[in-house]
Amino acid sequence: FAVCGDELCCVGGGSSVELRSLAQEYGTPLYVYSGDQIVERARMFQNAFADRAHTVCYAVKANSALGILRLLGDQGCGFDIVSGGELARVIAAAGPERAHEWTGRVVFSGVGKTAEEMDSALAAGILQFNVESEAELELLAERAELLQRKARFALRVNPDVFAETHPYISTGLSAHKFGIAIGLARGVYARFREHAWLEATGVSVHIGSQIRQVEPFQAAMERVVALVRELRADGANIRTVDGGGGLGIEYGAEEFSPAAKVCAYANAVRAALGDLDAHLLIEPGRFLVGQAGALVSRVLYTKRNGEKKFVITDAAMNDLIRPALYQAHHEIVPVMQVADAEAETVDVVGPVCESGDFFARDRSLPELEQGDLVALLDAGAYGLSLSSNYNTRLRPAEVLVRSGEAKLIRRRETYEELFAPEMV
Ligand code: LLP
Q1: 353 catalytically annotated
Q2: Pocket flag, ligand 1, residue 297 (CB < 6 Å)
Q3: What residue ranges do the domains of the chain occupy?
Q4: Are 100 and 79 in contact (CB under 8 A)?
Q5: Among 4, 9, 10, 353, which one carries the catalytic annotation?
Q6: Which CATH number fits domain 2-32+292-419: 3.20.20.70, 3.30.460.10, 3.40.50.720, 2.40.37.10?
Q7: Of the given ranges (14-28, 35-49, 167-181, 297-311), which has the lowest mean pLDDT?
Q8: Is the pLDDT of residue 253 over 70?
Q9: Topology annotation, domain 35-290
Q10: Which residues carry this modification: N6-(pyridoxal phosphate)lysine (predicted)?
């Protein structure tokens, strides 16, 4: 997103589209994504690991729009899923011809997979289950036998590595619910080695999200590599190592070079892998889609309560919950840039009946008036995918822009659709 002339545009592929015209055509609140940037980010990872066998398995939860899954699948990406619903999305995005090929690049993470979810993933022939407990492995063995389909699995190990991030999205410490303590993993692999319907094909790790240093990724991967060597010595045919996702972006206006970040990340992972001969899987989510998305919203009202000025937008916490949930910072930029606009300190809030429904507090912004459009930046990851219909609000529409061409990839919901599953 960049200012072209006097207004904010979605730029990419040598062209630009004005957010103002998209808001006019599709209404607000509206998520706008740069497909060019998403593709560019995926290629950064693919190029950084070009010298070794690897698959970038996009973490679907970050943004599960079918249009975005299609874009990334077409780039040769695989997918990291955490539910039967996400598997259904991958299959829908692939279409019947490619469904089999694309599900062959799926890894299935998550601490609470159900029997039904395992069954659908086994039927789809996914690449690998990232198993998070012994009890889960027992159920997977049962389902695999029942369906007479071999289940390829990796244990997701908990490496007990500290990575600095928000406490809600840190996962790599033994205090967290995720994975199997790395010290116990070898025993678990050994216990299931002879099982006819299970095949241990990998080891996986994921230490958390929005991690901006690369050292914790290296530390975690070093522990995984050591385990792989032990397992191979035990006779296991370990072929994949999955480093998980979690590489962070910069929210806000700071200078940020995504290419340099991916390079540093790749060097750290590469250093840990050394000469290990294994197919590398990584599961980036936020890094691929976060900065490619903006939530465009219109100012409904402005008002003063005592000392404070409030800017009330038509987007709310149900559309983008990150500020309310994680005190996350999202830059807010007026879509129309007014030269020499006065700055003022405001709270930007939504219409939902919760005091937590804010996008910014005491933020200095150019003066905004009723009817103005604003863009909340870096909203492509965990935006719509974490949205809800709270207050019976219709969720935003979504537009994907590529090379100057804008396509609606999700139309706005209707009230009838919201009530459809309900009975009086
Ligand atoms: N792999 C696994 C197993 C994960 O649990 C996650 C994210 C990812 C990959 C992708 O992580 P990423 O590359 O996107 O950091 N809602 C929070 C983030 C939750 C992350 C959950 N797991 C937020 O808005 O910051």
Answers
A1: yes
A2: no
A3: 2-32+292-419, 35-290
A4: no
A5: 353
A6: 2.40.37.10
A7: 167-181
A8: no
A9: TIM Barrel (3.20.20)
A10: 61
pLDDT at 252: 81
Name the residue of 44, 286, 326, 388 to mutate for ligand 1: max ligand atoms within 8 A of Cβ. 286
Start-end of H helices in 197-240: 215-233
Q: How far is the CA of 67 from the centre of ligand 1 (A)?
A: 20
Mean per-residue pLDDT for 385-394? 98
Any ligand 1 atom below 6 A from CB of 209: yes
ipTM summary value: 0.99
Q: Ligand 1 centroid vs 371 CA: distance in angstroms?
A: 35
Strand partners, 410: 398
Indicate whether residue 113 lines ligand 1 (CB < 6 A): no
| Domain pair 2-32+292-419 / 35-290, same fold | no
* 190-206 mean pLDDT: 97
pTM: 0.97
Tokens of 341: 């606009």
Q: Whole-angstrom Cα distance, residue 153 to residue 202?
A: 6
Contact between 144 and 150 (Cβ < 8 Å)? yes
User: Residue 88: which of 120, 56, 115 has the closest Cα?
Assistant: 120
The C-alpha atoms of residue 328 and residue 315 are separated, in whole angstroms, by: 16
For residues 380-404, average pLDDT:
98
C-beta 243 within 6 A of ligand 1: no
Tens of pLDDT along 374-387? 999 999 999 999 99
